[in-house]
Structure formats: C-alpha cells, structure tokens
Amino acid sequence: MTNSSTMLGFARDNILFLRDNARWIGAGFLLTLFSSFGQTFFIGLSGNDLRNAFGLSGGELGGLYMVATLASAATLPWLGRTLDLMPGWKVARFSMPALAIACVLIVIAPNVVVLTLSIYLLRLFGQGMMTEIAFTEVGRWFVANRGRAMALITQGQQVGSAVLPAAVVVIAQLSGDWRTGWIVGAAAVVFIGLPAIVTLMRVERVPQSHEAKAAGQRTARDWTRGEVVRDPVLYVLLAGTLAPAFIGTVIFFHQGYLVELRGYDPLVFAAAYPVMSVTTIVFGLLCGYLIDRFGSLRLLPFSLIPLAVASAGVALITPVWGVYAFMLLLGISNGFTFTLLGALWPEVYGLANLGGIRAITVSAMVLATAIGPGITGALIDVGITLPTQMLWLAGWCLVASLLLAFAAGQVQRREARAAYRAAGSR
C-alpha cells in the first residue's frame, strides 16, 4: 500500500504541475517534437534512398553527413547566442521556417552539394536550434522543478521517435515515393508547429517565490562564456555527456546497414522505436523526480551504465529480439541523459548567459553526432563491423562514468568553497 500510495502521489503531483504550467511545458514539448526532423533517426530513415539516389556508399554518405553536421556545430555557438539577446519565441520565429526550407531542399536537391546543404540546415535548425530554444527557455523558467520540467519537455522527441518512423514508412508506401514524408514534415512545421509554439511562448513564465529561494541550491554563480571555455571541468564533463549522442546517432544512422547485416525485416527498427520511446518517457519522469530531490550532479556518474549495457547488447545479441532489448536499454539511458543534461548546466554555470553556454554544449553534442557516422562508416568500409565497434563504445561508457564522477566532485567542491567564502564575507 505504501508503494502504491507513493506512485499515486507522484502521478498526482505531475498532473497538477502540468496543469499549472501547461503553456510553458507545451511549448518545450512541441519544440523537442519538431526537432525530430533534424534528428539522425529521422534522416536515417531516408539513408538507403539517399544512397541510391546519389550513388553513394555507406562511408561516403556518412562522410557527407559528418561534413554537414560539423558545419552546423561550428555555426550553432554563434546562432545560439541570440537566445541571450531576444525572447525565445522570436528565435523560434526564424528557426522554424528555416527548418521547413531544409525539409523541402532535401527533396529537390539536384546534386550532392545541395544535399549537403540541406542536411546542414536540418542539423542546425532541427537538432540544434529547436533543442537549444527548448532547454534554454525551460532552464530559465523553472528552478526548483527544473528536473520535472525537463523530463516532461524531452518527451516531445520521444513521441516523435515513436510515431514518425512508422508514419514515414506508411506515407512512402501509400505515395510510392520516399520524398513525400519530407514534404508533409515541412508543411507540419510551418502550419502547425510554428503558430502553436510562438503563441505559447509569447507569455514569459516568472519562477515562483519558492523556486526563487531554491535558486541558490540548484543554480551555480553566473559564469561568462569566456570563463566556461577556459574551465577544464567542461571538457571532462563533455567527454562523458557526449557518449549518448555519439552512440545513438551511430545506431540510428546505420540502422539500414545493421538490418542488411543480420537479415532483419526492414520494419523491425520502425516497430522498435515505440519501445524506446515509452521507456524513455517513464525513466525521464523518474529522473526528473530524482533531480529535483538530489540534484543532477549526484546522478551524473550513473547515467551511462544503461548505455554501456545497451551497446554491448547490439554487439552480442544477434536474434531479432536483440533490437527490442537494445531499444529498451537505450530508452532507459535516454530517459536519464536527456533529462539530466537539460538540468545540468545551470547547476554548473548559472543562468545569466545560459543561451550562449548551452549553445557551446549543444554544439559539442552536434559535433559528436557528426563524427559518429563518419568514423564508424569509414571503419565499416575497411572491414570493421558495427557490432565490433559497439563493444569499443561500451568500454567508452564505462571509462566516461569515472570521468563524470570526477567532474561532479570537482563542481560540488568548488561550489562549496564559493559558498564558504560568501558566508565568511558577510
């Protein structure tokens, strides 16, 4: 009865929180949902069609994808600073039309150069800016309930990954053309997503009084971008926090290769996405609760363990049920890492320059998703199979967990020293 009462209380609290903050949670949810059109899992759905249309090998498409994504990663730190200069809804007002243009451009691309440009725009305005706007604005709007808010808005991408793959397959089968899904996506961005998101975001949320009191406990002092770039702890944190983006991108981008390697039905991955999405939602909400209770730094060292197991599973489990096992474990990992990374950076570097600082971290994430397909595609071309590479990546997760434990300890110690100095000066 005690466990049942606790779960009911947890569900009731989330419902009340969502009711009171539906406008802002809804805006963040839609931003992450529509970021799907620039995410690797969505672009990867057209991977085989793009290779056939332009006569590219897996390694060549991976290299092209890497170049486009590297360019978006280089652009994002500068474009992301707009969130420190203007309201988020104004940034969304130019980012979303650019995303729709990219969806159309990949359909009409006459050559590899234009294809690269379209992927660059998809990565910059889809994965990059849509995620950047959502996490930055919600990070500012919420303090004491930042973890819960992040857990709720990141479900947008999970809904996208659960629904869109199957929808794209159905649309392609009905129309007889893989390009139709991209046209439908562009129309949805402009005529559904843009007006809804701008309308919701035009009303700013001011943190409530109890949240303001919690700011000192859940938010570090305000660092400048220059200080952040010179901080060694940043690079230790990135060495661990970039693993989920890198590994997830590798699997989604090479899903066609894995299907062919093991003789799976082409619909296997599409059918497994809902497993990952539901698991991500459940564990994302759990992580949000734990963040609000303990803080993100305490959870950080444990966040990569499910991903290590998932990576080993891809390498070692060959029957078709292994896809579902991997997606289940990846969902657990995503639930923790997506929510955790949304709440982490204010605890480490404060709020004043959060847009520019988060642009650095999101750019690094985009960079990880750029080099993943390129490196792994090249290794596949020289005969090193993806399952072998996944064992190496499982080892990276274990080493990275130790690095994250070290970095979390460093941040907690310096914040304790800063608090001690502040108390002594009063």
Give descriptors for this structure:
426 residues, Growth Hormone, Chain: A, 21 helices
Report on this model:
By secondary structure, the protein is an all-alpha fold. It has one domain (21-202, 218-419): Growth Hormone, Chain: A (Up-down Bundle), CATH 1.20.1250.20. Helix content is 83%, strand content 0%. Helix 2 (22-34) runs antiparallel to helix 10 (180-201), helix 13 (232-241) runs antiparallel to helix 21 and helix 14 packs across helix 20 (354-381). The longest helix is centred in the C-terminal third of the chain and has 40 residues, at 386-425. Mean pLDDT is 84; it is low at 212-216.
Secondary structure: elements and pairs:
Elements: H1 2-20, H2 22-34, H3 40-44, H4 47-54, H5 58-79, H6 88-108, H7 112-141, H8 146-153, H9 155-175, H10 180-201, H11 209-218, H12 225-230, H13 232-241, H14 243-253, H15 255-262, H16 267-294, H17 296-299, H18 305-316, H19 321-349, H20 354-381, H21 386-425
Helix pairs in contact: 2-7, 2-9, 2-10, 5-7, 5-20, 6-7, 6-10, 7-8, 7-20, 8-16, 8-19, 9-16, 13-21, 14-20, 16-19, 18-19, 18-21
